[in-house]
Design goal:
alpha+beta; Homing Intron 3 (I-Ppo) Encoded Endonuclease, Chain A; two-stranded antiparallel sheet; globular
C-alpha cells in the first residue's frame, strides 16, 4: 500500500510553477527519478547517481527559457513529493547524506534572515 502511494507521489507533476515552466519541468520528472538508486544504501537513503556540485550535493541542470538553471537534487525530490518550498526555508537531511533524495529523510528548516548593518 505504502509503495503504491510513494509511486504516485513520485509521478506527481510539479504544481505552483508559472505556466510557462511547467511543461519543461514536467517532461523531466521520470528522468529525474531514474537517476536515483533506491537499493544500495542500508540506511534507506536514496542516492543521487548523476552530477554533483563542489559541495558534494546532487545537482541537475535544466534549460528553461534559454537559461541553464542548476537545481539541487534533494530539493527537487522534496518539491516533487511534498510540495512547495516556502521562502526563507532550506531542505535538510535527517540522515546527513548529501546525495540522499529519500523524501522520508528530508525536512524543511527556516533560514535566519541576513543581518543588516545599521546606519548610525
Amino acid at each position: 500500500m505504502q509503495t503504491v502511494q510513494l509511486e504516485q507521489q513520485q509521478r506527481r507533476r510539479p504544481k505552483g510553477l508559472p505556466e510557462s515552466l511547467r511543461p519543461a519541468l514536467s517532461a523531466k520528472v521520470d528522468r529525474f527519478w531514474n537517476k536515483i538508486d533506491k537499493t544500495s544504501d542500508p540506511d534507506g537513503c536514496w542516492l543521487w547517481t548523476a552530477n554533483q556540485n563542489s559541495g558534494s550535493y546532487g545537482q541537475l541542470g535544466r534549460k528553461i527559457n534559454g537559461r541553464c538553471i542548476m537545481i539541487l537534487a534533494h530539493r527537487m525530490a522534496f518539491f516533487l513529493t511534498k510540495g512547495e518550498i516556502p521562502p526563507n526555508h532550506d531542505v535538510r537531511h535527517t540522515c546527513g547524506e548529501r546525495l540522499c533524495c529519500n523524501p522520508d529523510h528530508l525536512f524543511l528548516r527556516g533560514i535566519k534572515a541576513p543581518l543588516v548593518d545599521e546606519q548610525v
